[in-house]
Fold this sequence. Notes:
mainly alpha
Amino acid sequence: xxxxxxxxxxxxxxxxxxxxxxxxxxxxxxxxxxxxxxxxxxxxxxxxxxxxxxxxxxxxxxxxxxxxxxxxxxxxxxxxxxxxxxxxxxxxxxxxxxxxxxxxxxxxxxxxxxxxxxxxxxxxxxxxxxxxxxxxxxxxxxxxxxxxxxxxxxxxxxxxxxxxxxxxxxxxxxxxxxxxxxxxxxxxxxxxxxx
Length: 195
Ligand code: MN
């Protein structure tokens, strides 16, 4: 299979003012697309293949290096775009709301732990809500690392590489994480992943 750049699930300006069209345009059209193009070159060179993107990430992890980094970043970004929606964020509803209350104590406790994970990821990386051993947990991963290579199932993710927020928030990663949680999170996607 070949890696593909999916269309964004919303217009490039649909997340404004919390994420600008300029940020989304560069992030999707340049950063994400470069992972697709390089990943396809490296997959062809290495002769690595699979039937779906998740398995392609796992197969690439056996090789490691630039191959894994580019393929995993394609999966991570696909997941990130779906983790957001226009007029999203705020307290969740549905099964994910009950599960967050059960496993974190409250939505506020979840917010604190998710924010601390995102702020505490030194340098480039990702902060995830994952389901692991039947419990929701916060996971942070450096660079291109992804829960797909672990026992945990991804539920939601925020990209905390500087390219995700620098044009809009400069060095203020905590402000970006607050905007993500309060105005962008797609809880419908989280509920779908939990089901
Ligand atoms: Mn990114």
